[in-house]
Each structure stands twice: as structure tokens, then as C-alpha cells.
Amino acid sequence: MFKKSQIETFKSLKTPFYFYDMDLLDKTIEQVKLHGQSKGYHIHFAIKANYNFRILEKMLEAGFGIDCVSGPEIERSIEAGFSPDQIAFAGVGKTDEEIQIGLDHDIFSFNCESLQELEVLNDLASQSEKVAKVALRLNPNVSAKTHKYITTGLHENKFGIHPDRFSDLFELLPKLAAIKLTGIHFHIGSQVTDLESYRQLCERVNEFQNIFEGKGYNLQHINLGGGLGINYKKPEEEAMPNFKSFFELFDNYLDVKPDQEVHFELGRSIVGQCGSLISKVLFIKEGVSTHFAVIDAGMTELIRPALYQAEHSINILTSDKEPITYDVVGPICESSDTFRRGISLPEVQRGDLLAIRSAGAYGEVMSSGFNLRKQVKAYYSDELVEKAVTD
Ligand code: LLP
């Protein structure tokens, strides 16, 4: 929960804004180090989840690498201090310019998703007189049992190379002199809460590895992607996933060859729970069967409820009155601009502050300028007092 002094400071800040609990981020990172890095696993932070420099600083200190999906993400990672040999570059539609950025920096791995991409990468690499290191993203046809918009590992999804293309792939690879195959890559989806999906992934990875070995390829690394989900129903620390059982599962089920590296690309599970969107109640409106609490944050600041029907927990920070039932809605001209329906919250009035929790991943970075809304500010628990004074 927020400290009283923090809530007092929030009252002096222009809402809405993002607030990051840096102590919780530290604690989360400690868990990843304790259960993942200690096993020799390489962790890449999925910068797409949150690209704030203050957050990236923590990932750098932790010794994590970065997982990118665009040229600008590669550039930002380097600006934040990451070494190019810690950068994996995934994405089903990399432009020539983006590929060139990766080549110019000699990144750790291009995670390639199609045969045509391999050919283009090979051409561009040979023009630059470079050899690009490649991990092939393979489609394992494993269900992540998550929202269909964030499921990526099924054959019907656009991601990864389908096993039906393997024979063409094995014909093509020896012709690509400017490519060095270093690994295989997977990512089954995001907000995965059933670890059974990862066990199935391990089975598929083991099978694929044998196929590649049979063709004479000794893979230096396996990249299992990210996707580990958090508990959006629980606050803060309790929202954190069980990293111990996550990493132990791979320890138990994945066949790792001697000297082979195992990589992960975690985004949400590291940064999700430490962020909140702080907003103010603008109006209370009586609906037919509900009270609308109209707040000053909208889907422009946090699109997850509108896009994935995600339910973020909401805490009222400045009222402890008896609870009543609300629909918490934003100001945007879309009915999907609704954070929660039929939620029981302490009675609020105009001016009360509330926190929309676990918004640290895919929150601020997915904000938009729809309705000409301005980008909101971010504050960090370890510098909040100083910021509040200067703002
Ligand atoms: N690796 C690859 C190749 C990915 O595409 C992603 C996420 C990750 C790693 C990191 O996944 P994570 O550990 O954060 O689940 N906007 C959606 C999530 C989209 C995830 C896209 N890819 C949401 O708000 O739920």
C-alpha cells in the first residue's frame, strides 16, 4: 500500500500520472536473480513492457540483457548503457533500416521469423561485410491459455517458423554465408499463468533441438521468450509471480546440452506490479443501474482494459467511506474506455484520488494521443519528494 506521505505528495501533483515503486522493483529483480540468474540463465528484459530510463537503469544494474522488437528499441537500449551483445532482436516485420541498426551494432541475436527474412538479413549482412548471428523463432503450436490477442505460439498465429517449412529451411541455411545460426527462439504468449504451457513448450523445444542436431547444427543457445503472468487481482508484492517454480520447471524439463546457454525474455513479470496509474475522480454520475465514477485517466493512458478486457485492481486513496458499487470510467469518447464494471469501492466524491494497480507493464508505453491527450508524467518512489517540490 502507499504511504501516507506519498498520498499527501500525490495530492500536489497533476493527475493522471504513473508512479513506480522502486523498492518493489528491486525486490522483484532480486527474485529473478535468486531463482533464474543463479541457475546460469540469461535474462533479457523485454523493453517493450516499459522503456523508461529509470526502469532500464535497474535492469542494467541487475546484469540483464534486453529483448527488442524495433530499431528504436535497440537504440534506446544502447543509449541506456546495454552492450549490443546483450541485445536480442525479435519481430515478425523488421524493416531494412531496423535490420541495419542491428547489424551496425553487432547485436547478440536476430530472432528471425521467416525464410524470407533470413534471405533479406543475409543480403544486408553481406553488403555490410558482416556475419549476423541468428536464432530462429520457431512456432511450437503450444497454447498459452491467455487472451487471444496475446497468444503467439499457435500455428494460426503470425509468429515463428512453422515446422512444415523446416525442410526448405535446411536447404536454405547452407546458402546463407552471411548468417551464423546460433540458437532457436520461442515465445508462446503473454500473461501466462498456467505453468503447464511452459512444460509443453519444453517438450517441443527438446524435439526441435533433436531435429536441428540431426542436421548437424549445435545450437549455442535456446531462447524461451517471456510471458510469465502476474496476479492482477492481488496488490503489489502478492501480484509477483512465483519465479522459483517458473525457473525450476525449465530446470526439470528442458534438455540443455553442455555449454549451451538458456535465455529468457521477461517483461510483465518484472515490471508489471511496481507501476500504478494515479488518477482523480472528476464526476459522479448516476446510471440506470450503477454509479459511474468518471476519472481523469482513460484508455489513452492505460489501454489494457479496453483492448484485452483486463481487470486491474483499483484502490481509493483518499476515502474510507462505506463501499458502494461503481463503474469506473475514463473521459474518452469510447464506451470501451471503462476500467472496471460493478466494482465495490469506498464511496468517492469529486477530487478523490485512486490508484489503478499493476500498470507497470504495457501501461505508459502503450499510451496514445487520441483525443489529443498529452503524454502523462512518471514519478518514482525514490525521488518523489524531490520531484514534487520542483514540479
Ligand atoms: N519476447 C517476445 C518475443 C515478445 O513478443 C514478448 C511480448 C515478450 C518477450 C515479453 O513478454 P512478457 O514477459 O512481458 O509477457 N500488450 C500486451 C502484451 C503484449 C506482449 C507482446 N510480446 C498486454 O498488455 O497484455
Automatic annotation (TrEMBL):
Residues the record lists as N6-(pyridoxal phosphate)lysine modifications: K48
Enzyme Commission identifier(s): 4.1.1.20
Superkingdom in the source lineage: Bacteria
Binding site for substrate: R268, R304, Y308, E334, Y362
Pathway(s) served: Amino-acid biosynthesis; L-lysine biosynthesis via DAP pathway; L-lysine from DL-2,6-diaminopimelate: step 1/1
Annotated pyridoxal 5'-phosphate binding sites: G227, E265, L266, G267, R268, Y362
Chemical reaction(s) catalysed: meso-2,6-diaminopimelate + H(+) = L-lysine + CO2
Keyword Ubl conjugation: no
Domain (Orn/DAP/Arg decarboxylase 2 N-terminal) ranges: 40-271
PANTHER family (UniProt xref): DIAMINOPIMELATE DECARBOXYLASE, GROUP IV DECARBOXYLASE
Family to which this protein belongs: Belongs to the Orn/Lys/Arg decarboxylase class-II family. LysA subfamily.
Protein name in UniProt: Diaminopimelate decarboxylase
Native source organism of the sequence: Rhodohalobacter sulfatireducens
Gene this protein is translated from: lysA
